[in-house]
Amino acid sequence: MFQFFKRVKTVVGSELNAMLDKAEDPVKMLDQFMREMESDIREAEASVAKQIANEKMLKRKADDANQLVEKRQQQAEKAIEAGNEDLARRALEDKKSQEQQAILLTESWERAKQDADQLREKLDEMKKEYQDMQLKKDTLKARAESAKTRTKMNRAMSSISNDESKRGFERMEEKVMRFEAEAETSEDLSSSSRSLDDEFRELDKGGVDDELAALKKKLGKE
């Protein structure tokens, strides 16, 4: 179980590019890894809880056995004071039996406590590593999303550069410029094709204006 976290660290770190090469979605894969880590942590928590419960049970039995040893010692002393040597002997015999039991239970409790302490440390390491992976996952997800966005933008720009509509727009622009050139040419042709009568009419028009100006001056109507 605890080895799983090392595997996840390797995948999340050095194998991100491999996931991209295989067309796997890094965001979904990272979320999946985190869910697996969460499941392992819950499983580890359950194991630690069982071990702690076992440790407490053995501690309670060891304490009870030690208390019974002390009790038999006090009872033996009380029996001697009362002059009942046989009762004292039986109390000491049971005390000796309880001492052996207390020793075995204490040894079992110490081993259980050592195992529980180690499991607690492992669980704390798993939770800390999970938190580190959570932070790293958020960073990697942001990087993956940014890379996907850049890829989409680059593809869009490439599509626009080669798009048929853009080429059509350029053709229409050329056509408008051609229309404008034709219009300017027709204006030049119209100007150069004036007849002699047109030019004389223009000249006559100018003579009337001069005559009108002279008449106004004569009559003082300027």
How is the topology of this model organized?
Layout: H1 3-14, H2 16-21, H3 26-81, H4 85-161, H5 164-192, H6 196-218
Helix pairs in contact: 1-3, 3-4
Key structural traits:
222 residues, mainly alpha, Helix Hairpins, 2 domains, 6 helices, 91% helix, PspA_VIPP1, PspA/IM30 family protein
Structure description:
With 222 residues, the chain is an all-alpha fold. The protein folds into 2 domains: 3-162, Helix Hairpins (Orthogonal Bundle); 167-218. Helix content is 91%, strand content 0%. Helix 1 runs antiparallel to helix 3 (26-81). The protein is rod-shaped and about 170 Å long. The chain starts with a helix and ends with a helix.
Structure described in brief:
Helix content is 91%, strand content 0%.
Tally of alpha and pi helices: 6
Strand content: under 5%
Class based on secondary structure composition and strand pairing = mainly alpha
In angstroms, what separates the terminal alpha carbons?
Answer: 114 Å
**Rg (CA only):** 52 Å
Sketch the topology as an H/E string, one letter per element: HHHHHH
Task: Using the alpha-carbon principal axes, give the shape.
Answer: rod-shaped
CATH A-level architecture of the largest domain: Orthogonal Bundle
Can you summarize the main beta sheet? none
**In percent, how helical is the residue content?**
over 70%
